[in-house]
């Protein structure tokens, strides 16, 4: 009975999401021209079919799954489709739909192959090792440096960030490790600098993750990915142990490493200074131009937005990547 209720709730939420997405895409298409609607309709049809297929798979293969996850991913995706379609209907639109279909196919494949997620815990160290390897690939000659950060690997016409796959592998490792050791990690058996901490052999993973996150920052020159990676670990550690001291200690460690990175890497210094004073004439026409334009876009949209299709995302450089939030914020508003 509960499984049926969960899946029916998911179906209703998914239906609402697809209606919102269809409306958003239609408004964006009409804002360009009437002919653009004929390009948008097949994209939304494929997107709808993809999520309906995912729902059917959930109903049959994972009836007890959380009913919110699929609709939440869908609403983010369909609004993202409307935003990128606004920028390039013939390029970004089909690409978004294609990779959505690929992602859902992989999702269904996992549901078919992995009957019990607890099975993954048997291979936690393999996932941990795989995550570390993926994380460090861009630091090898295979990596490509873009805008000062070495995050990408290019294989022929395709390029991707191994760090995105590394996050999945490392989350699996951390979840399994923390589930196994959470009682030991929650017990404070020693005192260091006034803080009660567990034995080093159990506390060691915190230091290892700190080292890995700093390695990402130093070798790949990307403070953002490093911070995200370490934050994931701290959140999972807190959920497992409910000890604030880990979060405080981990944050302090990262701040020390981040300060060192700031002092060592010139491009990090430039980005921080630009962020602090983006409207400085020294930065606004150069390093700070993209950030300044995104702030202008958000200011133009205000609280309620200019309306879908009524913004000017074309004046934000590379809006489809780092600043898609500004595109959406300008047209939908901050509320």
Outline the structure in words.
There is one protein chain. This protein is mainly α. It has three domains: 1-113; 117-179 and 195-242; 273-332, no CATH class. It is built from 13 helices and five strands. It has a three-stranded antiparallel sheet. Strand 4 and strand 5 (195-197) form a beta hairpin. The two termini are 37 Å apart. The model has no long low-confidence stretch (mean pLDDT 82).
Relevant terms:
335 residues; mainly alpha; three-stranded antiparallel sheet; two-stranded antiparallel ribbon; 70% helix
How would you sum up this structure in a few lines?
With 335 residues, the chain is mostly helical.
Task: Produce the secondary structure layout.
Layout: H1 2-32, H2 35-61, H3 69-87, H4 92-113, H5 124-136, E1 143-146, E2 149-155, E3 158-160, H6 162-186, E4 190-192, E5 195-197, H7 200-220, H8 223-241, H9 244-264, H10 266-276, H11 281-284, H12 289-301, H13 324-332
- Total strands: the figure is 5
pLDDT averaged over residues: 82
Principal-axes geometry comes out as: globular
- String of helices and strands: HHHHHEEEHEEHHHHHHH
Which runs of at least 5 residues are low in confidence (pLDDT < 50)? none
Q: State the strand order across the main sheet.
A: 1-2-3
Helix content, binned percent: over 70%
Which sheet architecture does the biggest sheet show?
Answer: 3 strands, antiparallel
DSSP helical segment count: 13
How much of the sequence lies in strands comes to 5-15%
The number of distinct structural domains comes to 3
Terminal-residue CA separation: 37 Å
Q: Please state the CA-atom Rg, rounded to the nearest Å.
A: 23 Å
Task: Give the helix/strand class.
Answer: mainly alpha
């Amino acid at each position: 009975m509960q499984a049926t209720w969960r899946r029916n709730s998911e179906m209703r939420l998914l239906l609402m999401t697809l209606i919102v997405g269809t409306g958003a895409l239609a408004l964006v298409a009409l804002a360009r021209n009437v002919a653009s609607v004929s390009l948008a309709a097949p994209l939304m049809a494929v997107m709808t079919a993809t999520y309906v297929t995912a729902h059917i798979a959930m109903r049959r293969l994972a009836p007890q799954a959380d009913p919110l996850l699929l609709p939440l991913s869908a609403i983010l995706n369909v609004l993202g489709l409307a935003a990128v379609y606004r920028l390039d209907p013939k390029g970004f639109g089909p690409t978004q739909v294609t990779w959505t279909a690929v992602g859902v196919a992989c999702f269904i494949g996992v549901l078919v192959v992995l009957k019990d997620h607890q099975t993954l815990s048997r291979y936690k160290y393999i996932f941990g090792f795989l995550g570390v390897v993926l994380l460090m690939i861009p630091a090898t000659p295979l990596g490509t440096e873009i805008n000062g950060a070495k995050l990408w690997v290019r294989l022929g016409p395709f390029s991707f960030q191994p760090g995105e796959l590394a996050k999945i592998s490392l989350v699996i490792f951390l979840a399994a490790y923390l589930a196994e050791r959470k009682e030991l990690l929650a017990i404070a058996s020693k005192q260091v600098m006034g803080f009660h901490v567990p034995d080093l052999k159990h506390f060691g993973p915190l230091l290892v993750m700190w080292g890995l996150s700093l390695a990402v920052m130093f070798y790949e020159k990307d403070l953002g990915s490093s911070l995200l990676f370490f934050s994931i670990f701290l959140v999972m550690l807190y959920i497992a142990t409910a000890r604030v001291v880990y979060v405080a200690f981990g944050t302090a460690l990262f701040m020390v490493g981040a300060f060192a990175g700031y002092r060592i890497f010139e491009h990090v210094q430039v980005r921080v200074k630009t962020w602090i004073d983006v409207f400085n004439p020294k930065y606004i026409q150069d390093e700070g131009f993209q950030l300044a334009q995104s702030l202008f876009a958000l200011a133009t949209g205000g609280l309620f937005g200019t309306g879908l299709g009524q913004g000017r995302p074309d004046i934000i450089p590379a809006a489809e990547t780092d600043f898609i939030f500004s595109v959406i914020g300008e047209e939908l508003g901050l509320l």
